[in-house]
């Protein structure tokens, strides 16, 4: 199979203060099969070019939202992007099939521990449950949803020596998104793709 084109939409209002996401952004920038877009740098006034963004979506096969989890959701500009770009007649509706068959994935960081994202944990829900609005958005737009790629306890990842391993995993994930069969991931009910990716990465097509 030909390699898929990956669009990484990065949303962080203060990347200079980021210990995780700005490094993930660098990985995406340098990946040969990824197109990297820094939404806050491109649209500091929130005046999103809808036609430009829709064209970007049409030109790629995999859409990745890269962001820190803010109040169990995306940063504000990424939500604004969704509200404006995913129009009826383009992304959904009887004639809105521009995104049909594309893969969609969230790559996010959370300050809380993984144990906090559980029915019995501090947040009372898994990360996947909290991101259901994005999963349903993908479903409405006829995209194939892949469970989120996540780093928990992100505030202590540097001190605990976990950042570099996470960056390597993200680079490897982008490789897989470009070249592997993704059906197992798209059909999985796992809370995060990390659970599947760590132990059983999909076979890369030759």
Word description of this protein:
This protein is of the alpha/beta class and 206 residues long. It is built from nine helices and five strands. The protein is globular, with a radius of gyration of 16 Å. The protein starts with 5 loop residues before the first strand and ends in a 9-residue tail after the last helix.
- If you compute it from the alpha carbons, what radius of gyration comes out, rounded to the nearest whole angstrom? 16 Å
| pLDDT averaged residue by residue | 91
Helix-strand pattern: EHEHHEHEHHEHHH
Q: Main beta sheet: strand number and arrangement?
A: 5 strands, parallel
Secondary structure category:
alpha/beta
Across the major sheet, the strand order is 2-1-3-4-5
Tell me what portion of residues adopts beta-strand conformation: 15-25%
E-strand count: 5
Total number of helical segments?
9
Approximate shape: globular
End-to-end Cα distance, whole Å, is: 7 Å
State the low-pLDDT regions, or none. 201-206
Question: What is the helical fraction, as a range of percent?
Answer: 25-40%
Write the layout of secondary structure elements.
Blueprint: E1 6-10, H1 21-30, E2 34-38, H2 39-42, H3 50-58, E3 62-68, H4 76-85, E4 103-109, H5 127-130, H6 132-140, E5 144-151, H7 163-179, H8 183-186, H9 193-197
Helix pairs in contact: 1-7
Question: What is the gist of this entry?
Answer:
It contains nine helices and five strands; from the N terminus they run E-H-E-H-H-E-H-E-H-H-E-H-H-H. It has 206 residues and is α/β, with parallel strands linked by helices.
